[in-house]
Design a protein that fits this description.
The complex is a heterodimer of chains A (about 280) and B (about 120).
Chain A: E1 11-15, H1 19-31, E2 35-39, H2 42-51, E3 56-60, H3 68-75, E4 83-88, H4 93-101, E5 106-109, H5 114-123, E6 134-139, E7 142-148, H6 151-164, H7 170-191, E8 199-206, E9 210-216, H8 241-249, H9 257-264, E10 267-270, E11 276-282
Parallel strand pairs in A: 1-2, 1-3, 3-4, 4-5
Antiparallel strand pairs in A: 6-7, 7-8, 8-9, 9-11, 10-11
Helix pairs in contact in A: 2-3, 6-7, 7-9
Chain B: E1 6-12, E2 15-24, H1 30-42, E3 47-58, H2 60-75, E4 79-83, H3 87-95, E5 103-105, H4 108-121
Parallel strand pairs in B: 2-3, 3-4, 4-5
Antiparallel strand pairs in B: 1-2
Helix pairs in contact in B: 1-2
Classes of the chains: A alpha/beta (about 280), B alpha/beta (about 120).
């Protein structure tokens, strides 16, 4: 199996009060080529962070004497804040949203397969490149955020949405998360031109019988009649005709996002300019 | 960001079985798969079976690469066939109507034999 090469070794601070888990994860990460230090509580973690620097902090939320969320907040004051991956068995929306508000990078629900931690470390970018998410509203019923137009943000938000909707049946959760990611990717790539200085505004509203997601991008919108490069314009008997258009226009292979999303959710509604989109998934 | 897509290759006469492991998504595996398939086709390997058993996530960009390479091989007289789709991937193929474009198999031998059958039919 020819995996792509993993990034250079990362400096990791692993913070957990469970000594056995700390030891097991540290061994795994060292074996994967990373430099690992450990801490058993919040104050010890802060001391090591100040002596740092670290690229990544793996941080348990339920620490003695000082909550992991408080440690997370304190990392933001460091000269180069590390990426913080929260690890916890407490996956209530309130905890997750507080972690989002305090700029957690990822969220791992315990128990997780040991390999998952190595995969997350391999995925993350460089600390200096991580951009902030502005949280406008973080109630479990109404999450609203403003985020820069980068693919890295799309990946982070996708991960949070998968956890936020953890109580949904798996198939529904996956459909919602995939629809969200497809529309967000469109908004970031086409509306925001992958410019981190431009922002998308995202609302996730959870009612008793439905989920509503709304994404607003900074672009001028589009004319659906001119989307010959998208699968939604294909005749019913030729599901790949748009690929020829994409070849002519020099676009990367793709164009299936809207067609997919339309089938994954119950309602897909654009505003007049088509720089805002809303989807609804009804709950049984 | 690094990609975690694993790619393994096996040759059976003029048929190449490509086993994929991990995510095929924009910024995460799509470029690796596109380049890998491009190189295979450039080297004349146009009868491909893609084993998708261990593909954990697939998005529209990944589906786009599969469909675009399907076109490329078809133009050269070859084909890409899909093997061992997960329930999720099969659903995505269904809703994008690509299940009517690709031949999809659950049995590797059957997928390999289908090339001979197609050649015999022409």
């Amino acid at each position: 199996m020819t995996d792509q090469p993993v990034d250079v070794s990362r400096r990791i601070l692993l913070v957990d009060d469970d000594r056995a888990l700390r030891h097991a994860l540290a061994s795994l990460l060292v074996e994967a080529g990373h430099l690992v230090e450990t801490a058993g509580d919040g104050p010890e973690a802060l001391t090591k962070l100040e002596a740092g620097p670290f690229d990544i902090v793996l941080l348990d939320i339920g620490l003695p004497s000082m909550s992991g969320l408080e440690v997370l907040a304190r990392t933001r004051a460091l000269a180069v804040p590390p990426l913080v991956v929260m690890m916890t068995a407490d996956d209530t929306p309130e905890t997750l949203l507080e972690a989002v508000r305090r700029q957690a990078y990822r969220y791992l629900r315990k128990p997780f397969a040991p390999r998952a931690i190595v995969d997350v470390i391999n995925e993350v970018g460089a600390p200096g490149a991580v951009l902030s998410i502005e949280v406008v509203s973080a109630s479990p019923e109404w999450l609203e955020i403003i985020a820069p137009c980068t693919f890295e943000i799309a990946e982070r938000l996708h991960s949070f949405i998968m956890h936020l909707e953890a109580t949904l049946p798996e198939a529904v959760r996956e459909s919602v998360a995939q629809a969200f990611r497809e529309l967000l990717t469109n908004a970031i790539e086409w509306g925001g031109k992958l410019d981190p200085n431009r922002k998308v505004r995202i609302s996730c509203v959870r009612a008793r019988r439905m989920l509503l997601y709304r994404i607003s991008d900074p672009g001028e919108g589009f004319d659906i009649e001119r989307l010959r490069h998208a699968a939604i314009s294909n005749p019913a008997d030729d599901p790949i005709r748009h690929l020829l258009v994409r070849e002519e226009q020099g676009l990367r292979p793709g164009g299936f996002g809207l067609a997919m999303t339309r089938s994954l959710v119950d309602e897909l509604i654009f505003n007049e300019a088509r720089n805002e989109v809303m989807f609804i998934k009804y709950l049984e | 960001m690094t990609t975690r897509l694993g790619i393994e290759q096996q040759r059976l006469a003029d048929i190449t079985i490509v086993r994929l492991k991990g995510r095929i998504e924009v910024e995460e595996g799509v470029d690796a798969l596109r380049d890998y398939l491009n190189n295979l086709v450039k080297d004349g390997h146009i009868r491909l079976v893609l084993d998708m058993k261990d593909v954990t996530r697939l998005d529209s960009a990944g589906i786009g690469v599969l469909a675009a390479r399907y076109l490329t091989t078809a133009r050269r007289g070859g084909a890409i066939k899909l093997l061992h789709l997960t329930e999720r991937t099969a659903h995505l193929m269904e809703i994008t109507k690509l299940s009517s474009v690709f031949e999809i198999f659950d049995d590797e031998n059957e997928a390999v034999r289908s090339f001979a059958a197609a050649a015999g039919a022409t």
